[in-house]
């Protein structure tokens, strides 16, 4: 099998070179990576076919590395894959460097550094199209949640480590894997808020946090979480804030996933942003007219009932006592 790999690689490369000959020379480079279990590096190109005018996207470089990559290494890999005719004795694409029109990258410092090095060494300066999904992926992180943000933070602290017992008790209690806000997956913060809202803070308190605090599993985070929701007033605020984030954040994260799909990026992003602009352009009343605030409405009613049970029942009695006095 190992002997077949170089042969298949050359056949694939020849087929790709032949196809690119029938495409416009101008091209876009897409760079991305993922540090989940190893340092993954991916480079793709987008081109337009001369006859059909269709946009085509090809994977030209994919590799895993044990150690984190720096800007200089990424710049070299991009050059090796696209613009150098012979690397390690094997012919590569040898594309026209001067026809490099744009680069789609995230805002990671290593990718920015790689493009700076390419500009300095090669004298080319393709347009940098920063990934729009990075703007929507963290929706809610900058939201003004007075209590909800702290609740999310401490629950993340409880499940931060992969092998900790708090993660295991979570699965036993709720029958699903715990979400956490860290990592590179798009919309992770919103996904965690959805999980909190779906399970409900009452179950988190009684079936999870109290058990973790008692047994010393992620003890500090569990105790801080319980402190944040101990007061009924704060408990209700957290429930309402998180539910509001789930409702408002849903269209944002939905469009984020679409923007990260295989469709031609510029058109997909334009369509997604147009939808969001139309949705939010009429203000909060126009957004709510589409019945988007389902979870917020449910949690607000629950919070009102909780506050009534805790505080308002005694209010008429106080009024009567004052009048009689």
Written overview of the protein:
This protein has 325 residues and is of the alpha/beta class. The protein folds into two domains: 128 residues, no CATH class; 180 residues, no CATH class. Helix content is 57%, strand content 13%. It has a five-stranded mixed beta sheet. A hairpin with a 6-residue loop joins β2 and β3. α8 packs antiparallel against α9 and α10 runs antiparallel to α11. The longest helix has 28 residues. It is elongated, with a radius of gyration of 27 Å. The C terminus is likely disordered.
What topology does this entry show?
Elements (H helix, E strand, L loop, with lengths): L3 H18 L5 E8 L4 E10 L6 E11 L5 H12 L3 E2 L2 E2 L8 E6 L3 H14 L4 E4 L2 H5 L10 H11 L6 H10 L13 H12 L1 H15 L3 H10 L3 H28 L5 H16 L2 H6 L5 H17 L4 H10 L1
Parallel strand pairs: 1-6, 6-7
Antiparallel strand pairs: 1-2, 2-3, 4-5
Helix pairs in contact: 2-3, 5-9, 7-10, 8-9, 10-11, 10-13
Number of strands: 7
Give the overall pLDDT as a whole number: 80
Taken together, the total number of domains comes to 2
Ranges where pLDDT stays below 50 over 5 or more residues in a row are 314-325
How much of the polypeptide forms β-strand, as a percent range? 5-15%
Name the shape in a single word: elongated
Q: Strand order within the widest sheet?
A: 3-2-1-6-7
Record keyword descriptors for this entry.
13% strand; 14 helices; 325 residues; alpha/beta; 5-stranded mixed sheet; disordered C terminus; elongated
């Amino acid at each position: 099998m190992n002997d077949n790999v170089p042969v298949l690689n050359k056949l694939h490369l020849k087929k790709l070179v032949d196809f690119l000959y029938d495409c416009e020379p101008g091209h876009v480079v897409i760079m991305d990576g993922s540090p989940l279990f190893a340092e993954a590096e991916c480079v793709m190109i987008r081109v337009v076919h001369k006859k059909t005018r269709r946009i085509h996207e090809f994977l030209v470089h994919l590799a895993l590395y044990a150690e984190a990559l720096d800007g200089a290494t990424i710049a070299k890999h991009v050059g090796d894959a696209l613009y150098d005719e012979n690397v390690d004795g094997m012919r590569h694409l040898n594309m026209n460097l001067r026809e490099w029109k744009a680069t789609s990258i995230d805002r990671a410092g290593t990718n920015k550094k790689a493009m700076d090095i390419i500009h300095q060494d090669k004298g080319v300066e393709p347009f940098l199209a920063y990934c729009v999904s990075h703007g929507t992926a963290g929706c809610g992180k900058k939201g003004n949640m007075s209590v909800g943000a702290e609740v999310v933070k401490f629950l993340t602290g409880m499940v931060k480590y992969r092998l900790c017992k708090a993660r295991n008790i979570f699965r036993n209690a709720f029958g699903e894997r715990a979400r956490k806000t860290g990592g590179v997956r798009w919309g992770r913060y919103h996904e965690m808020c959805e999980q909190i809202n779906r399970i409900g803070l009452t179950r988190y308190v009684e079936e999870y946090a109290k058990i973790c605090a008692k047994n010393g599993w992620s003890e500090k985070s569990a105790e801080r979480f319980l402190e944040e929701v101990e007061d009924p007033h704060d408990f209700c605020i957290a429930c309402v804030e998180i539910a509001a984030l789930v409702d408002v954040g849903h269209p944002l994260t939905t469009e984020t996933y679409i923007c990260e799909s295989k469709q031609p990026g510029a058109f997909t992003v334009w369509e997604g942003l147009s939808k969001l602009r139309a949705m939010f352009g009429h203000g909060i009343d126009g957004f709510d007219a589409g019945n988007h605030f389902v979870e917020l409405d449910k949690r607000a009613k629950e919070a009102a009932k909780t506050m009534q049970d805790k505080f308002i029942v005694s209010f008429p009695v106080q009024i009567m006592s004052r009048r009689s006095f």
